[in-house]
Amino acid sequence: MEQKIKNLIIEALKNLEIEGGDFIVEHPADLTKGDYSTNVAMVFSKKLNTNPKDLAEKIVDQLSRLNLDNKIEKISVAGPGFINFYLSREFFTENIKDILNKKENFGKVNTLNGKLVLIEHSSPNLFKPFTVGHMMNNAIGESLVQLMKFSGADVVTMSFPSDISLGVAKAIYILLEKFGKDFTPNDIVVLGDAYVEGTQRYKDDESIHSRVKEIADNLYADTISPELNVFEKCKKLNIAYFESITGKLGSHFDSYIYESEAGVVGKEIVKKNTPSVFTESEGAIIYIPDESKKNLNTAVFINSQGNPTYEAKDLGLLKLKFERVHPDTSIFITDHEQISHFGVVLDAAEKINSEWAEKSIHVSHGRMNFKGQRMSSRMGGAPLAEEMLKTVGEDVAERSIHKNIDGLHESIAIAAIKFSILRTKPGQNINFDPDESLSFEGDSGPYLQYTHARIQSLIEKGKGLGMVPNYKVQNISDPEKILYRFPEIVEHTISEYAPQYIVTYLIETARAFNSFYGENKIIDESNKEVSEHRLAIAFATQIVLKNGLALLGIQAPDRM
RNA sequence: GCCCUUGUAGUUCAAUGGAUAGAACGAGGCUCUUCUAAGGCCUUGAUGUAGGUUCGAUUCCUACCAAGGGCACCA
């Protein structure tokens, strides 16, 4: 439609013998100002030295002589010289029918048909619990997974757990000391405690340093030993825990690459490309970016002890990703503290295999700052994801009038949390106060779910009265003016990797429907025709809400 | 010191260079003997400072102020 209007304008300009210059066609912010709007008259008025309003009138005059199709109802000039287009009954009729027809497929854009997209997200530290920080990463990652699928891409999901580190060696030391070599862990909390205790002990007691180092070496080298045995069991438990919690959040991972694997590969790459790409310096191997790249800094890839740093590990990860999956696009999600780190890694990667850098996309997110006192981690850091789900779930249960069937309460809690993460621009920090900012009212996940459930109730009531959604009456309602925009919102969201646009759009959609609901009786038993028409609008709204929520990784319950 | 982000109502967030800067929470007032009141309707209130580019700036540029983050062997 947008293109159609553009073409009409170009034709009108041609008739006025005006050429060149850019103008845009967009949706006006206000629904009363039409469905599409263009700034063409303002752009050209200076050049032609005329009043923008007069020029707009001339263009409208030309447009009205053209062969407009029946999708455009009227064209008018408003404000400082905007030309507003109002779409017709025919357009909206066709559109609602299209939505009802396509159902769960409405909004699919096919812009990435045939492409293979790899998405790495929610990467955990084994031995450390899954915190709300990970939930933030997960919410964005999972949303991108759904968006990419919706755009026609084949998606492979991956997580990159950090498995071996000095910290882990410290934890293993504690576990061996406390429980002996036959220790079999069955609770993730024990591991987290050992991690904390190990860190403290290592700080306080220098006499254990050599033993901890030995443990680390044995783990890295895969040497058969009590520590390797305990470690393997812990790793297995950690992955099970990780999959259980991310599963609750709606995520599935096709594969893992462990930090230890990536380290080995990364070290090889760096060595192979020294001195062509990397430089030896003070016993370490470093990368010095080009002078012109001011925002990049020198980084150590292999330290003076000969071990790969995170930089080398990420380089190894890149190689493994592209060798194993061969993606057309590789997306990875981290918090924004790692922006400059990846700037350097990708700059170096480009010189080794340009594909790695060109096809990689780094999506970053902010951090959650906690204000409230209600939840706090025993480790002094961020609260645990499970704790958050539990607390919020209790709040939901308290106010819910429905029983907790099929995980309803949990799905509402997840909606509230994910919504508050995804509503902001990516990269923004989120100030999170569970008591205040986690809302079930107003702009919130539950508000969207509630609107969906409310429509379900309408549809069921209609069914009982023998009414089915059937679109035919003449006035154009506000929800209709918004519903048809869903596919273009999806496209925009995908091109920017910013789920936030979906959030804003869904809120607008739900609000338009709820106002419509407040002003009109949807089901009027005395007037079947009007009822069925309104049911059609309700049903179309429900479809858009459901599809949109799915793109946010949020369930759309039928009842709440 | 250098580099990157970010400064919008009391608070939390919006706004592909456009029209009267939108919401939500909070506060106040209405609204269920009629479809789910986690709803709807009304009132209240904001672009850090100073310049510049532009027909038009929250958006782009410069400086300053403020907050957060990153800058060689942590991840």
β-strand number: 14
Q: Beta fraction of the residues?
A: 5-15%
Q: Could you name the ranges where pLDDT drops below 50 across 5 or more consecutive residues?
A: none
Q: How far do the termini sit from each other?
A: 37 Å
Indicate the mean pLDDT. Answer: 91
Helix content: 40-55%
Cα-atom radius of gyration: 29 Å
What strand line-up does the widest sheet have? 7-6-5-11-12
Question: What is the 3D shape?
Answer: globular
Q: How many separate helices? A: 20
Oligomer status: single chain
Structural class: alpha/beta
Largest sheet: 5 strands, parallel
Q: What are the key terms here?
A:
single chain; 560 residues; alpha/beta; 4-stranded antiparallel β-sheet; 20 helices; 14 strands; 11% strand; globular; RNA-binding
Characterise the protein shown here:
With 560 residues, this protein is of the alpha/beta class. Helix content is 53%, strand content 11%. It is built from 20 helices and 14 strands. The chain has helices spanning 2-15, 40-48, 52-65, 89-102, 132-150, 166-179, 188-204, 209-221, 226-248, 259-272, 310-325, 339-352, 354-358, 385-399, 408-422, 445-464, 478-483, 486-496, 500-519, 528-551, and strands at 25-26, 36-38, 72-78, 82-87, 116-120, 154-159, 255-256, 279-281, 284-287, 299-302, 329-335, 360-365, 368-370, 430-432. A 5-stranded parallel β-sheet has the order 7-6-5-11-12, sandwiched between helices. The chain has a 4-stranded antiparallel β-sheet with strand order 1-2-4-3. A hairpin with a 2-residue loop joins strand 8 and strand 9 (284-287). The chain is globular, with a radius of gyration of 29 Å. The mean pLDDT is 91. It binds one RNA strand of 75 nucleotides through helix 2, strand 9, strand 10, helix 12 and strand 14.
